[in-house]
Design goal:
Length: about 240
């Protein structure tokens, strides 16, 4: 659910059903992501200065600061576009326009970033397969997504440093329903180019309360890049 200080909402009624058409929410906008029973994600919060909803596209967007906080991850960014397909009950795409940093707590049950080098395939996707025996069960519970980081990608991992033009995380699992993407994913592949993270950017997003903060540790994986993040379903041709 979403809360905000104020907003303008246009509504329409069709076949006796009233639904929002277009909306603009302003001031301390918080998108509260509630985990679904049986899911493998934690409660999360997205903090925005404002957000615009266009019903024709099923699109939420903002040009302002974006801050995501959960027990497993923290993201600081500017600009967001999100399209959700209500009929298919799935995320069509999520684009973070300008990523400042993404901090991820490493999972003890999976490897988020592979230490293996790419084989030279143009797409850079060389380490992507999920466990086949679980496909039927997992398809019934949720969907899998691909995340693309691009342009001067820098990954500070406790065991390695990755420098890349493009970096994919494949088979990110999302529990069915309005839940955030899990940080548990298969290994990714990279195409290397040296760069350095920008450490001078400021966090301008609304601040979470103490109970909603991500506790940073020395074992966190930190990701930065110059061209944002693009998340789509695994079977999408957009990436």
């Amino acid at each position: 659910y979403i809360t905000a200080d104020k907003g303008d909402v246009q509504i329409e009624t069709a076949a006796g059903k009233t639904s929002p058409k277009d909306a603009k929410l302003i001031g301390n906008v918080v998108i509260h992501i509630v985990p679904i029973e049986g899911g493998n994600i934690s409660e999360g919060f997205i903090y925005l200065d404002d957000v615009t909803y266009i019903s024709e596209k099923s699109q939420f967007s903002t040009d302002g600061p974006v801050k995501f906080v959960s027990a497993d991850a923290q993201m600081l960014a500017t600009g967001m576009e999100l399209v959700y397909n209500d009929e298919l009950d799935q995320l069509e795409f999520l684009r973070i326009i300008n990523l400042e940093s993404l901090r991820i707590r490493p999972s003890s049950q999976s490897t988020l970033f592979s230490s293996r080098q790419p084989s030279g395939d143009a797409s850079g996707e060389t380490e992507t397969s999920a466990t086949p025996s679980k496909d039927v069960t997992e398809e019934a519970k949720g969907r899998r997504y691909r995340c693309l980081f691009s342009k001067n990608v820098f990954v500070d991992h406790p065991e390695q440093v990755i420098l890349s033009d493009e970096l994919f995380i494949n088979n990110i699992f999302e529990s069915k329903g309005p839940a955030p993407l899990s940080s548990e994913a298969d290994p990714c592949a990279v195409e290397g180019v040296q760069t350095a993270p920008d450490s001078n950017k400021q966090d301008t997003a609304p601040q979470p309360s103490k109970s909603e903060q991500y506790d940073e540790t020395s074992t966190d994986i930190v990701v930065t890049c110059d061209n944002g993040i693009f998340i789509t379903p695994m079977d999408s041709t957009s990436v």
